[in-house]
């Protein structure tokens, strides 16, 4: 599919701006993840991401298509439903039910607000000096997952019951649930600090990003509308 996309873009003479995640880096043992980190993924999802990124950048080097890659961490925000802080979490939180999260929620974890990610991709699209490179978009400060939960609680003005699943539980659930089988290979994200270094992007384009408290409010408002009976 990637090859077909490249061929299609090449025919139009357009620039390919590729929105990506961080799966290809694999387990960095809690060290901050920069664009220079090696592709160390051992799982299927990470290996596929590494292969796609390599193919895109090679196409750029050969002069086939101008390419730029923007990468974000775990996304949240309006229209982000399949994520840690996605539909499953907010539906439970808004209804007063137990919300499920992964691993150690007391560890620092970089989260990317989807609207910041979209703005960053536009910035990369508009600046040809960014071409042929990977960029980690600017994010709000890295805080813990527990702190994100606390911000949601403050916005909802009610406590949230949280249940966490460790590696063993994810493994057992994966025996019967295909989605949990996929999550199993990514559990390192929730067992160690997961911190993204976006200094390269910040130096080139600025470090402006939406504060988590503002992003959480916008996200809660969106989910309230989504689950509204009207």
> What fraction strand?
5-15%
Question: How many strands in all?
Answer: 9
The main sheet orders its strands as 1-2-7
Cα-atom radius of gyration = 18 Å
Outline, from the CA principal axes? globular
Which CATH class applies here? Alpha Beta
The low-confidence parts are none
In round numbers, the mean pLDDT is 95
Total of helices: 9
CATH level-four homologous superfamily name: NAD(P)-binding Rossmann-like Domain
Largest beta-sheet details? 3 strands, parallel
Helix/strand order, N-terminal first: HEHEEHEEEHEEHEHHHH
Based on the structure given, which CATH architecture is correct? 3-Layer(aba) Sandwich
Cα end-to-end separation: 40 Å
Class per helix and strand makeup: alpha/beta
Q: How many domains make up the coordinates? A: 1
CATH topology: Rossmann fold
Secondary structure: helix percent: 40-55%
Protein name: NAD-dependent epimerase/dehydratase domain-containing protein
Domain NAD-dependent epimerase/dehydratase: 2-134
InterPro entries: Epimerase_deHydtase, NAD(P)-bd_dom_sf
Family: Belongs to the NAD(P)-dependent epimerase/dehydratase family.
């Amino acid at each position: 599919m990637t090859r077909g996309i490249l061929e299609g873009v090449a025919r139009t003479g357009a620039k390919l701006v590729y929105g990506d995640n961080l799966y290809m880096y694999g387990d960095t043992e809690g060290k901050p993840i920069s664009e220079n980190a090696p592709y160390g993924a051992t799982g299927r999802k990470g290996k596929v991401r590494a292969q796609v990124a390599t193919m895109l950048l090679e196409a750029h080097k050969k002069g086939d298509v101008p390419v730029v890659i923007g990468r974000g961490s775990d996304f949240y925000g309006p229209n982000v439903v399949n994520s840690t802080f996605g539909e499953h979490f907010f539906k439970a939180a808004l209804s007063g039910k137990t919300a499920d999260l992964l691993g150690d929620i007391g560890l620092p974890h970089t989260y990317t607000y989807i609207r910041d990610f979209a703005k960053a991709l536009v910035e990369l699209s508009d600046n040809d000096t960014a071409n042929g490179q990977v960029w980690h978009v600017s994010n709000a400060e890295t805080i813990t997952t527990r702190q994100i939960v606390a911000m949601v609680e403050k916005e909802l003005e009610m406590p949230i019951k949280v249940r966490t699943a460790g590696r063993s539980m994810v493994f057992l659930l994966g025996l019967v649930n295909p989605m949990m089988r996929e999550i199993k290979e990514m559990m390192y994200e929730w067992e160690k600090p997961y911190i993204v270094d976006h200094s390269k992007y910040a130096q080139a384009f600025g470090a402006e990003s939406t504060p988590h408290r503002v992003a959480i409010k916008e996200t809660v408002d969106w989910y309230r509308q989504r689950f509204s009976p009207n």
